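Reminder to self: tokens first, then the designed residues, so the page reads top to bottom the way the pipeline ran.
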């Protein structure tokens, strides 16, 4: 079954979707990239081209590999454009109702033997699978950000995921050169169950005035040897995604220790979502990032 994955679809061409398309095309797979508008897919293609060119400049890949990878990616604005894919990975916003609607529309046109996956950071794979016509061929394939650089992918089985689907997903991920960590289907899985409460606590530290943005990030970089400060990392992930993950943890585990920090809620309500909107805990509109608090 694993050998059958030759063509993949990616729904949502934001920072994660374009990264998944990038690594899959470099690994020789045909990729169909989808988003809500042609503008979004166009800007994703420009990002992929820029990131591939950077890899050429660093001599990680050849110019020929860049051209071939780009040639393997096509775009579509419709679900019909994904109908003959062997595997479709949903990587749209971290909102359950949006993902459920995508799966509903996708399954209506997707060939029955195809596997459907979600790159969700936190939402129950079993619950998402139940919104499809093929829970046995549904799986969580959770990539890390930025996809071309990060080694890990978490694989999460829903209650109904069959062995053939798990094996095919594992072989697909291995083909991309990634290492697999298997997680049970619990809110936020392994990495985000540990990482997001730490980030949320850093935001509480800011909210309570224990330290300012620079002090908190410097403390964790220099005092705990984290490569990025937690607030810088939150901006990188996207504050909307951080909030959605905390909400899933809070609701799913029903424990007040996961309560999203009100300051995180405020930033999201302001539309200050981090790097992708140019403003979050830092303002990225100038030459160098400036703390917003
Ligand atoms: N940001 C991270 O660090 C990270 C890491 C791992 C997994 N994820 C997960 O990946 C997914 C995407 O996150 P992202 O950071 O790429 O977000 P993003 O905001 O960069 O991109 C989301 C994209 O989804 C598109 N979209 C929204 N509704 C859609 C629909 N109905 N059909 C098709 N496309 C639609 C948006 O237009 C946007 O381009 C989320 O589930 C997130 O939890 C994120």
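Designed residues (293 positions):
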């Amino acid at each position: 079954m694993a050998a059958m994955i030759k063509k993949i679809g990616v729904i949502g061409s934001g920072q994660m979707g374009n990264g998944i398309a990038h690594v899959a095309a470099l690994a020789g797979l045909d990729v169909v990239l989808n988003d809500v508008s042609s503008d979004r897919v166009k800007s994703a293609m420009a990002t992929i081209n820029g990131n591939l060119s950077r890899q050429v400049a660093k001599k990680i890949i050849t110019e020929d590999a860049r051209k071939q990878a780009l040639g393997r990616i096509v775009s579509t604005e419709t679900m019909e454009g994904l109908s003959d894919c062997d595997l479709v990975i949903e990587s749209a916003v971290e909102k359950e109702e949006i993902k459920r609607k995508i799966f509903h529309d996708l399954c209506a046109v997707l060939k029955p033997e195809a596997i459907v996956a979600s790159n969700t950071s936190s939402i129950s794979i079993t619950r998402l699978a139940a919104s499809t016509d093929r829970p046995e061929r549904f799986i969580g394939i959770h990539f890390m950000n930025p996809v071309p650089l990060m080694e890990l992918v978490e694989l999460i089985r829903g209650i109904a995921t069959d062995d053939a689907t798990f094996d095919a997903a594992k072989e697909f991920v291995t083909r991309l050169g990634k290492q697999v960590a298997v997680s049970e289907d619990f809110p936020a899985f392994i990495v985000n169950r540990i990482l997001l409460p730490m980030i949320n606590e850093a935001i509480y530290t800011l909210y309570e005035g224990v330290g300012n943005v620079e002090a908190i990030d410097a403390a964790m970089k220099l005092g705990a040897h984290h490569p990025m400060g937690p607030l810088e990392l939150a901006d990188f992930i996207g504050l909307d995604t951080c909030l959605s993950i905390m909400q899933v943890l809070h609701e799913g585990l029903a424990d007040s220790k996961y309560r999203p920090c009100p300051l995180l809620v405020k930033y999201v309500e302001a539309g200050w979502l981090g790097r992708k909107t140019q403003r979050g805990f830092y303002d990225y509109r100038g030459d160098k990032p400036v703390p917003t608090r």
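The chain has eleven helices and ten strands.
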